[in-house]
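Hi R.,

Here's the chain you asked about this morning:
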Amino acid sequence: MAASKKPSRSPSKEPAKRKTKAPKPLLTPDDVIQRLRALYGEPEWRPHGDATAELVLTLLSQNTADYNSGRAFSRLLQQYPDWQSVVDAPLDELVDTIRPGGLAPTKAPRLKAMLSEIHERRGDFDLRFLAGTPVEEAREWLRTLPAVGPKTAACVLLFGLGMPGLPVDTHVFRVASRLALIDERLGPDKSQTYLEATVPPEDHFGFHILLIRHGRHTCYARNPACERCPLLDGCPWGLANRKAGSLAGIR
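And the predicted structure, written out as tokens:
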């Protein structure tokens, strides 16, 4: 007698993961600026006009503290009288010069390549001509240089040329994410594109500086001081954590 076949079982399906919806912002960028301005004062926008120096400083500041990049930049200016001297410098010498900024073996060849490309295109190292071009054209020109990403280009526009640009550093990204002004899943580069489109150009500088100050003095990465934050009633992240009772010091 033939053995009866057991009914085959269909493979079990894992339950579909639900996509978590990003919370909606409770405050507008202007609301945030007004409240933080009352706390930290009005940032004064005084672009220094030396776009090439800003470009170099921003490259040196990548993945390091401001103090370290400042030391590297000062040593660079002391060692070399002009940008051509940086291009012509032996690589090992340049590495040693900017070593306080960290990642010198990576940054030194990038710095030489960036400056060489500027000179090849322009015949000099002066980037002031960009101030007379449309913002997007200036941004694209900078972005096509070696080692220049969205944040670096925005820093040059904002601080070097006095043009709109909204660099998203770790503080801006954290505070804007907690306020639901951006979706943290976008990452810094796409978040910058989004913020530059949603924050009025005339507010780029103030928004950038005020969120950095807030990230440094109140909205820390760990144990943020939500109990004294003027944005708490409009912060989905802070309100959710206060409700859950998971933040020390929040009542």
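The domain at 29-44+167-244 is CATH 1.10.1670.10 (Endonuclease Iii, domain 2).

Let me know if you need anything else.
M.
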